[in-house]
Amino acid sequence: MTLVALSLHLAGATVLLLYAVHLVRSGVENAYGTSLTRVLARGGERRIYAAASGTVLAVLLQSSTAVAMLASGLSASGYLTLNTSLAVLLGADLGSALVVRVLSFDLGWLSPLLLAAGGLLYLKGRSDKPRELGRMLLGIGFVLMSLKLIGEATLPLKQSDVLPAVVGYLAKDQVTAFAAAMLFTWIVHSSVAVLILILGFAAQGLLPVEAGLPLILGANLGSGLIAMWLTRGFSAEARRVAAGNLLFRAFGAAIALLVIGPLSAELQHLGATPAEQLVHFHLAFNACLVIVCLPLSQLAASAVTSLIKSDLKSSEDSDTLARRISALDQALLDSPDAALAAATREVLFMGEVVERMLCPVMELLEHPSPAKIEEIRRLDGYVNRAHRDIKLYLAAIHRGVLDERQSRRGVELIDIAINLEHAGDIVSKTLVEIARDKLENGNNFSDEGWTELKALHASVRDNMRLAFNLLVSDDPAMARKLVREKERVRALVRESHERHLARLRAGRAESVESSNMHLEVARALKEVNSLLATLAYPILKQRGDLLESRLALVKG
């Protein structure tokens, strides 16, 4: 095989591996993304639970970076503290190492079965989840196929005259090897794929342990750089999560680089072959990070908080909203379709402001402050103003000649605006007042009750985004999902109510003190969620999927 053919063979196998990892991740996120978010948010402040959740999610997603993005988003929204988010990422790194270990086994015989099963599910599935499950199985099958192709592509390299010189140089210059692996991992944005490549070279006898160890450590640090790069435009709270994880990995890699030379002879106990020794070293490195760094997560959180200051944007954002040009263009009133589109844009803006009011509610309830309370009330003023302007604009459209479809759409937009204004009032007049009372009286929720309320808030926020996506898509499947989520939120509120009563019967002091707060917060979040669910009703009603009081059973 010529050098060009060899390079093309290896490049094709590597790209297939990257695509396969992406395929698995997208399948899991599409099918279970909301559930995965709730799993992380449910843990409260329990660092061991958080680390275990991160491990499981990284195994499912085959990517610690994907878990890092989830945890960063939850931290920015106040669902997870920075301390807990760092614990999640430590577990995710261990989970990613477990994925690499599993994939290092000879599972080539399983690839045809997974491809056949995944293809059938994806092509024949009648609903989203079977199709996404098929996508996941196809991705795993392609991963195994790519590993076989990589092995075939690297086999001729054993006869290369250049390779021994390169490998020998990397074994002697560990800093260069470390930096090269770190940079390559950042470029391809997948530490799993890079580590599998390294292990593939080692399995073919092309890479000795001495050269492989710094490559393994470089790939680990490169994984942390990926999350830092992807969160560079996020809020300070989100960037701190990636920075803290990078701090842990840099700390671990620096120490490991210092000791791998003297201890390289001892690594033979980790496996019979260079590939086994390297994969077990990778697994041991990440396990040690969890053991050593988990107790230090609070210290790391304080360090990155001092390094990355909070974004002071509240006043700037308010000024931006005040200067914002309304989408309600009076010149469009003679063109009903264009005017309705403009009204839809303004309703979306109204929804975005309500979302900005709802997102920090849990942080406000945990650490109430007059400034945060005033900011939410200021945002409610923009919601009320948008509600008034939308109603006047749609009334002006209705003074023209409209067909039945246009008239129905106008009524739907008015109803949505009314419901969003009501949702904003619930946040500003109920939840904010609870925070103000908490600020004055100092009552605290029980740990169990607080965890329940955070999970409920996470569900309502997810449904809010689903509702706003539905506003521009009119997707029936999305509408059905939103209505089903309404019932699920009701069940969450009912279960939380029952648990709260059980804590009251047990005489829990914190539950007694916070009883009214707990019940009012749960009730308010349930009302907001019910208002959001109304966005699905017009779509389902037109299709006959909505009965008078509940979602109709539909096929598919």
UniProtKB/TrEMBL annotation:
Keywords from the UniProt entry: Cell membrane, Membrane, Transmembrane, Transmembrane helix
Domain PhoU: 350-427
Residue ranges crossing the lipid bilayer per the database entry: 50-74, 109-125, 137-157, 177-199, 211-230, 242-263, 283-308
InterPro entries documented for this protein: Na/Pi_transpt, PhoU-like_sf, PhoU_dom
Cellular component terms per the entry's GO annotation: plasma membrane
Gene3D superfamilies registered for this protein in UniProt: Phosphate transport system protein phou homolog 2, domain 2
Protein's name according to its UniProt entry: PhoU domain-containing protein
